[in-house]
Amino acid sequence: MANQHPPISTTGIITPQYCAPVTHAIDLIITKEKTLRDNFTVKDINDNIVFAVKSSLVTIVTPREHRFLFDANGNPILHLRRSLLAADDSWKAYRGESTEPKDLIFTRKRSSLMQLRTKLNVFLANNNTEVCDFTVKANLSGQSWNVHIGESNNVVAQINKKLGTMFSREKFMVTVYPNVDYAFIVALVVTLD
């Protein structure tokens, strides 16, 4: 899907188990299911299921959105949560199904409220500064994004959105560069819509 880039020195953010091999990039296809909830299926290029994302139904009583990332065997990996009342469109990611502060992995939020192009800042849980660890930047059309290390030009993943039609589902074509946690990248992708 994309040109090969030299390995970038990163560690497993969710877990090292999900780091792309040092020798090559990983291509994933994230398909949004046509249901009332925002559910997604994540497959590799050989059509093997890698992850599934299940969402809870949002109600007026609980103005929070929840998405759960499961591995191919149905084990919970990550709980993504956002308040629908927050102006900065922030999502918090926790280990497993937790919402405990000790299990926080990262927070993703808009860099500013007024944007011509989407730019999201990602702060890992141990980051106590105002400097983000990763940024997600959209192109002018808003249909593709690059994930960068901090504010640098070092790209760790590319995301391209393919709009659905009456006969096909919306998809994200994702390339995760070597030595990068692809569970982390998938978690970012399913918070883009």
From TrEMBL:
Q: Where is the signal peptide?
A: none
Protein name from the UniProt record: Tubby C-terminal domain-containing protein
The source organism is Trifolium subterraneum (Subterranean clover)
Question: From what superkingdom does this record's organism come?
Answer: Eukaryota
Family (UniProt)? Belongs to the LOR family.
